[in-house]
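Predict the 3D structure for this chain.
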Amino acid sequence: MKRRALAALLLVALVFSLCSCRAFGEMSRAIGFGDPDYSGENVIRKVPLDGEIAGQITSMIKMLSVDSVKLPEFTSTKDAITLCHDSLLNYMLYTDYAKYAGNPDFLAQVDEEYPELGVSQIIPASEFESMMYRCFGGTVKISHGDSRAFKYLSRINAYIPIGHPISDAYDVTLTEIEETRNTYRVTFECSNGKRTMRYSATLVKREDGTIYFASVKSK
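Done. Predicted structure below.
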């Protein structure tokens, strides 16, 4: 009887463990943390280059650089956060300018804490962090501070631009999108009329249908 009870308890523990591991795996994939190596996955299909997925990927590529066709190359969230700090802030500002230039609550905080600055655009650091994790996955802690194009205001935890945002500094042409069970493998070109560079990228799918960059490499 004791043996049967012990066996039953072990079975329950095993089932609970498997369920917990599955739940953790789904949660990890949802936030872009702890993903396995998907490089060996078979290609399911070729994705149309003029569809919704292609448009989403093109928009995301636009945030990788501010004014150059030479994109940062990375294979980890930590590197992406460091290399794409300015370009992501710039992307947020020019794609949603009205939000960051016309929010009276944000601007009132700046006027109160930094009256000498005369700020007209501001990006809360919390929104920058959310966008960074959404685009590059991971749970790596983001360190805030001044950069080449943005000044960090520590007393209100926000960024202000040093100059004007730059938009459409280069054109993106997708040449191929291959879909696997968990990723999109993309090859593309960036051109500014004077120079063209070719890249490959891997973007990972989340459970909610969003995607994030796992790597970008030049070809």
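The radius of gyration is 22 Å.
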